[in-house]
């Protein structure tokens, strides 16, 4: 299983839809959590739910036995036992516009953009010993991001090693 993770708004859902259209199995984590009765109380800040990770990992066993690649779409995905973690990134200004368009309050936009500037999810993902790749989704289309993901799963992962994306220059604007 391969995790597709990243700050809300970076493009996980869009690239997951593109991967599905190419015939890949992509598990929508919220649907999976609902189906298995694993949705805990809502975490407004991260626009997600608190989840019992042990129970979640057990419930994902069915996908680990599947042939071929199975992707997990969610910013929780990097906390699941995966074989690879793909962290999608987005330029803070572009991310802010996307989250505003989604109707997030200014505080929630700022909170999520700050997490992106601080590499929060990348740091969480690289905490484990699971291979991590980082993809800048700021300007490419979802199809171009899916092309990159296909290159990574076909063995060209080195080009997208973590650490090449740095938004620290935006620190002043968002903190
Ligand atoms: N590669 C992209 N290029 C332009 N806009 C994008 C791209 N990926 C996503 N978007 C737009 O950004 C917003 C957030 O994308 P979404 O896939 O829902 O992000 P996430 O699932 O990470 O929260 C949506 O309005 C979507 O249309």
From TrEMBL:
Residues 101-111 are annotated as: LID. Its EC number is 2.7.4.3. The keyword NADP does not apply. One of its GO terms (molecular function) is ATP hydrolysis activity. It holds the Pfam family AAA_18. GO terms for biological process: ribosomal small subunit biogenesis; rRNA processing. Keywords: ATP-binding, Kinase, Nucleotide-binding, Ribosome biogenesis, rRNA processing, Transferase. The keyword Kinase applies. It is an enzyme of class 2 (transferase). ATP binds at residues 9, 11-14, 102. Interacts with uS11. Not a structural component of 40S pre-ribosomes, but transiently interacts with them by binding to uS11. Broad-specificity nucleoside monophosphate (NMP) kinase that catalyzes the reversible transfer of the terminal phosphate group between nucleoside triphosphates and monophosphates. Has also ATPase activity. Involved in the late maturation steps of the 30S ribosomal particles, specifically 16S rRNA maturation. While NMP activity is not required for ribosome maturation, ATPase activity is. Associates transiently with small ribosomal subunit protein uS11. ATP hydrolysis breaks the interaction with uS11. Belongs to the adenylate kinase family. AK6 subfamily. This is Putative adenylate kinase. It comes from Methanomethylophilus alvi (strain Mx1201).
